[in-house]
Amino acid sequence: MPAASVPAPTAPHSAAPATLVTNIGSLATNDPALGEGPLGLLADAAVVLDGDRVAWVGRAADAPAADAVHDAGGRAAVPGFVDSHSHLVFAGDRTEEFRARMSGRPYAAGGIRTTVAATRAAGDEQLHATVARHTAEALRQGTTVLETKSGYGLTVEDEARSLRVAAAHTDEVTYLGAHVVPPEYEDDPAGYVDLVTGPMLDACAPHARWVDVFCERGAFDGDQARAVLTAGAARGLVPRVHANQLHHGPGVQLAVELEAASADHCTHLTDADVDALANSRTVATLLPGAEFSTRSPYPDARRLLDAGATVALSTDCNPGSSYTSSMAFCIALAVREMRMTPDEALWSATAGGAAALRRTDVGRITPGARADLVLLDAPSHVHLAYRPGVPLVHGVWRAGRPV
Ligand SMILES: [Zn+2]
Asked: CATH class for domain 12-80+363-402?
């Protein structure tokens, strides 16, 4: 065999030494084969992180040797949170809008335009700094995978720029040119859809994995949303939909019909919507930070779960309607306000988010998974809901590296 055809030796995935994290009081693996219940819970557990992967999971007493040992001190460990829905490429401040809303004014989709004006006026460095600051803030709180979107540019140049900025900080980037019709197209929404599905898509598709649309009164109707999603899909982008947030509407049915990865919000659902989600691959992603921040009724997670739908929890972090980056806060809301059990809420914030991003390498602590692990200053993951607002994250590893 000529030397040129001999395969090169496999490079190690990382120079990081193998680390044994041991004396974990309670470990949620999200693998029922590894432990008890859907969370695959293991007591007195240990995990070996090798390079960027999980190499071993089991009882601490059975753990193999490693280069380094980290004593978890009996704390609980959970997979890194997977936040599958955020809007971090923005500029400007909407504190006063929040203050006014909390003084009685209802939330309407048009508030997005305030952020659009500020984002267009911002320099690239400012946008990078904003995304970097929020992703770091999320990571410190245990979020190891974060999706983020464009949608505050709404011109060809500003949407493409938003996606380039997003892609510098995360792999999960979504083209949301169809967030709202910008003021300059107010009298010609069809012309704006032509832009979103034409020149804007051409400029944006290379920088994104997903295509999204805000299917809502005051934003885009069912036909417009279908045009946006099918055009994106034809360019290789996988659909996800802002669906049924403020009213009943066609968003969920469209998401299921187009095999979207996720229908996000799902606050106002008919029985047919619930049925459609339960019988599809489309994940129902619930964003209770939005209902909290707009004093709106919460989605009925119990109804979706009892029907058999896959449910994810995300922050919807954005400056207008849900300015939180805390997945722990969303878990607490889901348990208190949406009738999810603490176990279901943790699953949805980790494995559920991974499903909404069609990822199998994250959202679980199993051999071969990416080494994303969060240690809690608590004996159990239940404390995420039991102790709302308390900063319980003690330590985070992302891709095998301590944060
Ligand atoms: Zn959103």
From this structure: mainly beta
